[in-house]
Each structure stands twice: as C-alpha cells, then as structure tokens.
C-alpha cells in the first residue's frame, strides 16, 4: 500500500516509557498583539462522521483509521480533568489512566478522540473495552484503556475550533509528540485514501475516516467528516427477542430498532455472535424489561417484547431495500447512558 504521512513520524503504537508532556513555549514577542483569551466551554457537541459507501479522494482530504471504542472529550485544566462521553456524561472515574495522563499535559486543553482497548495486533477491540468497563452499567475502572486523540478543540486558553483541521492537527501533533501512555496521537495520512482503506480492511480494521483539511470543527453530522467501513457496525435498541430452547441463553433472535426522527422503527434481527456467559446475563436483563405492548409498529407472534433500554452493538454487511440489516452479528451491549450513539435512519427514507 502506498501511504504518505503528512510528516515523518514514528508508528503510533511504538514502545517507549517516555511520559507525555507539553512542549515548552517560546517567550512571547512583546511586539506581538495580545491574543484574546477564550473561556473553556463546559461541553462541545461532537463533530460526527457521515457514513458513505466510497472513500472521498483528492488533495482536500486527510485520512485516519476508524477506531472501535467510546468517543470521548478530555477537558484539561490545571489540577482538574473531566472525561465526557458523546452523550454528555462524566466518565472521568472510569478511565483513570487517561485522566492521570491528562493531568501531566499541564495546560488547558480539550482533546477529542476515542477510548479503546487494543489487541495484540494493535487493533481496537470493542468487546474487550466493554469487558474492561464491567459490561453495561458496569462500575469497573478501565485502566487498560488508552485514548487516541484526533483533534484539539481548545488549547492554552484559546478556542481552536474555528481553525482549519490542518492547523488544529499541527497543534495536536506538537502537544502529543512522543506520547505512548494513556493518551496517544491517532495518526493522520494524506495521499491515496483508497489504498489506506484497502489496507485497513486487509488488516481487520473497522474502516477509515476522511476529513476535509480546511474544515473548522462543526458539531453534528454535516459531511466534512466521512466514515467508510469495511464491515458496518452500529448501535440499535433491543425491542424484543424470540425464545428458543436450543439457542444460547434461550435467545433465538433479538429484534432491533433504530431512531427515525423521534420514533423507533424496526430494522430486523440478529441471531448470531452470542457467547454463553454474556448471553445468559442478557436474557436475565431482558426478562426484567418485559412489556405487553410492542415498542415498535410490528405484529409478530411468539416475540417477548421488552422496553427499549438495552443498546446492542451490531456488525452487518449491508441494508436491504426495505431497510433491514443483512448478515447481522451481535457484538455486545453499549452502556445505557450511550443512547446518543443509536443509529438514526434517514427520515426521508420510505
């Protein structure tokens, strides 16, 4: 594969014990105008990637590996760190190694990135991350999780969100140069995006993210960031299950739903990917959520309907013409607080 790093750099997962530290600043030129200081925001709604079937190409795009973990914002102030989920929940206590590393940065900053647990090949493993956190609503501290930072929104009392992505990345790379602890740089590539995507798929990665190099940081899913997946993976509500005496945990098939506007719509089911011990617990959790009224507009005999509370992470190959998942496989449960990640069906779709 031909890939051209934007600048010479060591591999992301290099082996080093060097601590993460911010670089020393040069003395300010007294003739330079004093820049206005910006108050640190309590929260910045994240910029989200729009799913596309093809890799956008051309000199306007920069590329990154798509990581499979939890999207987080790390807010750093002198002596104080907050780790905020995509849905706005404070998970600082659940990622102690990331919080400890953030303190050492020693200046004000807001890092945008992904908390992951890596396997022996350096690939992010969502199931391992969930296990480290103690499963859905677990109380464990995921000390083995690391934070892969891909954007810098606020630094040294200045709002960077209005700068071009290429400028924000320049500051981020300087800040995290040589880091290999709880916070690391998510490497960026330019050049042949299709070749990077092909290599990502070949090595069993989830896919890539393409970003416009001149784009400011804009909250929402506007298209400046694009994700292209080797295998689709998204989050859906479990709205029921079909019992089975032969299947693991007595679950023959889970019924799934996504948002369409403010409503839930049926997107099909999943009957593979289950593991014995987690599935037994899943069945017990589902039985505590039984309801007599279907939470979606669907009539089907033999279904045990449940309240739409549990959020399943599902791998799938494609969508059918009538809006159902094809070749779906169950990966695990997301946290109950992570309903911001539930898949949104295009409201204009029939």
Key structural traits:
D-amino Acid Aminotransferase, Chain A, domain 1, 2 domains, single chain, 6-stranded mixed β-sheet, 5 helices, disordered N terminus, about 350 residues, about 15% helix, OB fold (Dihydrolipoamide Acetyltransferase, E2P)
Spell out the blueprint of helices and strands.
Elements (H helix, E strand, L loop, with lengths): L3 E2 L44 E2 L9 E5 L4 E8 L2 E6 L10 H8 L5 E8 L9 H7 L13 E10 L2 E2 L5 H11 L7 E3 L2 E3 L2 H10 L4 E6 L12 E5 L2 E12 L7 E10 L2 E8 L5 H12 L16 E2 L5 E6 L1 E2 L5 E2 L2 E6 L16
Parallel strand pairs: 2-12, 7-9
Antiparallel strand pairs: 1-10, 3-10, 3-11, 4-5, 4-6, 6-7, 7-8, 11-12, 13-14, 13-16, 13-17, 14-15, 17-20, 18-19
Q: How does this structure look, described?
A:
The two termini are 40 Å apart. Helix content is 14%, strand content 31%. The protein has two domains: 43-229, DNA ligase/mRNA capping enzyme (D-amino Acid Aminotransferase, Chain A, domain 1), CATH 3.30.470; 233-341, Beta Barrel (OB fold (Dihydrolipoamide Acetyltransferase, E2P)). The chain has a six-stranded mixed beta sheet. It has helices at residues 96-103, 126-132, 165-175, 193-202, 276-287; strands at 4-5, 50-51, 61-65, 70-77, 80-85, 109-116, 146-155, 158-159, 183-185, 188-190, 207-212, 225-229, 232-243, 251-260, 263-270, 304-305, 311-316, 318-319, 325-326, 329-334. The model is unreliable at 1-26 (pLDDT under 50).
The CATH architecture classification of the largest domain is 2-Layer Sandwich
| Count of individual helical segments | 5
**Structural domains: how many:** 2
CATH topology value of the largest domain: D-amino Acid Aminotransferase, Chain A, domain 1
What is the radius of gyration?
21 Å
Beta content comes to: 25-35%
The level 1 CATH classification of the largest domain is Alpha Beta
Q: How far is the N terminus from the C terminus? A: 40 Å
CATH superfamily descriptor of the largest domain:
DNA ligase/mRNA capping enzyme
What does the average pLDDT come to? 86
- Sheet bearing the most strands, described? 6 strands, mixed
Shape: globular
SSE order:
EEEEEHEHEEHEEHEEEEEHEEEEE
